[in-house]
């Protein structure tokens, strides 16, 4: 997991779009690509990010299509879809589908922690994380593939009537920028501070269909089992840290709540964290310090206010944690950063 991965469900549509051209040019001597293609036979498996990037680059070269990753909505193909897609499409409302997408999005990529938010103007934003190296071609292509996939799922669930109001992208316009609006059929904002798909909230509770609750429960159970295996297979500590940082799990959550979020037992959680030479308490402490540092530098909030924001009883507790972990009080840290460039703060 630490090397990064992408679900084969994100890559298989690209093979279909490339068509026979790619396979005709692919020689048997290319063992690396042949190995990846074997993995792609299972829509619920995952390939390393490096292998995925290599295959995508070769597909683009073979088709001579730089916009290959910008895919329009296509007809649902049950044979090539993954279990998470099945669960998404069986939901009775978009609200329910987005809940599962947000919860289980790491099944599609280790870097994909989706957040669904609602603005005061009743605009729903399905947000993707913005990577530090989003300008790099490989990272941009991954974003394109993920957005294309999510748009396909949304339109398969809601029909062509669903109106996407805008898609915001964190990178500059590309040489094939016209392809975005043509394929995704909406306005595109480049150089945005966020990466997201936007639409009106009225779609959230539209009655889409009525799925047999037993079927929905069965699919949910299968996705949860996949997610449970994923949590056990890699760095659980990193996954917990992300969940805490993104407010998906409360900083004050107890051990059982955290275990429930990852669909594992408290005993399994402890065992895996012990193997990773850490503990839930230490992870929570590290996240609290990280958030506190940012607030101390970027806001004028009092130390008492910051302590309460991160779930502590007050300033004394935050003082004690800071002194123990970084040999400085919060006040000393804030003072020291006044003459330190923000870049250094981010790196620290």
Automatic annotation (TrEMBL):
Query: What is the protein's given name?
Result: AraC family transcriptional regulator ligand-binding domain-containing protein
Q: Which Pfam families match?
A: Arabinose_bd, HTH_18
Report keywords, A-Z. Answer: DNA-binding, Transcription, Transcription regulation
Natural source organism: Bacterioplanoides pacificum
Transmembrane regions listed in the UniProt entry: none
- HTH araC/xylS-type domain: residues covered: 238-336
Which SUPFAM superfamilies does the annotation name? Homeodomain-like
> What domain of life does the native source organism fall in?
Bacteria
